[in-house]
Amino acid sequence: MRRSPRRRQGLGRTTGLSFAEIMVAIVLLALVLVPVFTLFNRGAEGTRQTWDEAVAHGLATGLLQEAKGWPFADPRLAAGSQDMPVSRTVYDPSAQDPRFRRTLTVSDFPATAGVPYAYKVLVVEVAWSTYGIERRIHLSGLLFQVKR
Is the pLDDT of residue 34 over 90? Predict the structure, then answer.
């Protein structure tokens, strides 16, 4: 007994997929994959933003802690703002990244009668750009010494 190829009943064609059916399947697959790839892209952007925020916070914390260790009369702690470049001697993943800018702003408070301390407020600002959006982080600290 010989077997003949399978045929659809009444049509006289062999079974299989037509070109139109394949094209419909490709279109449906594309409609499903586009949102999936968009999710991957958004996830990568979110990861980059989180990484940049962590680096900026580390840069701000590092500068604030370093400035708190300087002597009260250090010229770097004069009132005003100054750009503080990232130290290249310490391992820092952002040391080669020109997107990050650090600024130290120092405010002196005048001596007040009856208060035994002199104060300086330190504000560190780190600014950077991620995907064309300007971002900033501010950290502040207080430096004081006993009046003489």
Answer: no
Q: Which residues pair with 134 in a beta bridge?
A: 129
Structure tokens at 7: 């045929």
- Which H helix or E strand runs over 86? none
Q: What does the alpha-carbon distance between residue 117 and residue 111 come to, in Å, rounded to a whole number?
A: 8
Query: Assign residue 114 a region: left if phi > 0, alpha if psi is -120 to 50, beta otherwise?
Result: left
Q: Is 72 helix (H, G, I), strand (E, B) or coil?
A: coil
- Answer for the pair 118, 145: CB distance below 8 angstroms, yes or no: yes
Mean pLDDT is lowest, of 97-106, 108-117, 137-146, for: 108-117
Report helix, strand or coil for 90: coil
Say if residue 148's pLDDT is above 80: no
**Cα separation of 52 and 42, whole Å?**
15
Question: Domain-by-domain residue ranges, the chain?
Answer: 19-146
